[in-house]
Design a protein that fits this description.
- The model has no long low-confidence stretch (mean pLDDT 96).
- Strands 2-1-3-4-5-8-11 form a seven-stranded parallel sheet, sandwiched between helices. The chain has a two-stranded parallel ribbon with strand order 6-10. A two-stranded antiparallel sheet has the order 7-9.
- It is of the alpha/beta class.
- It is built from eight helices and eleven strands.
- Helices cover 38% and strands 19% of the residues.
Length: 247
Amino acid sequence: MRIAVAGATGNIGSLTVAALERDGHDVVSISRSLGVDLSTGDGLDGALAGVDAVVDATNAPATDPAEAVAYFGTATGNLLAAEQRAGVRHHVLLSIVGIDRVEGNAHYAGKREQERLVTVGPVPWTIVRATQFHDFAAMVVGWTEHDGVATVPPLLVQPIAPADVADVLAEVAAGEPQRRLIDVAGPEPQDLVDMARRTNEARGRMVKLVPTWSGPLGPEVAGDVLLPGKDARIAPTTFEEWLAGQR
């Protein structure tokens, strides 16, 4: 198949391109750095010529909910319209487990708008919702660390390897549109504070961790909010296997 990947130069996008090429597909890479701009639509029609399916793995660093909704809304609208013109048969969106259960998060607000546009849009679709990645705890520490101390919320996640997410996206894109949401997660739940501690140990970093809900992630994500549904697809790579590569 001829499959386009939007966000092809990003973390998940580049891994998805590699997975699709490994499986023998003809891949079209879409990103602003490659001359295709989703915000304006420039270059989209040419990029999507003859494309059977599109994987949208785009991301945005917006910190304001309205800004995130505007960005994802415009980019997704332009992409879907171009897909319809090109006769694309399947739109696969990468999203996030739990976004419909968390208010106040700018990125999640943008992803909800993206999901809404895809589900009511003109192109048959499948949405793959992934849990947080194995390096999420380290990211949170990076957000909050100051003078050797970092605050980390004591939340539960079921982390997944980015390469496993890419494999699922590649498989789904090569199949028929399912018009449903698919949760995909790693093998087992983890406590984020413990993940941060073990990641720091593996990387030889000395950071004092303070468990608290007063940081960037509050009690709105407590409990099972970020955990996958009972019918989730479980990916194989464990957190321990990822940790081994950090040493």
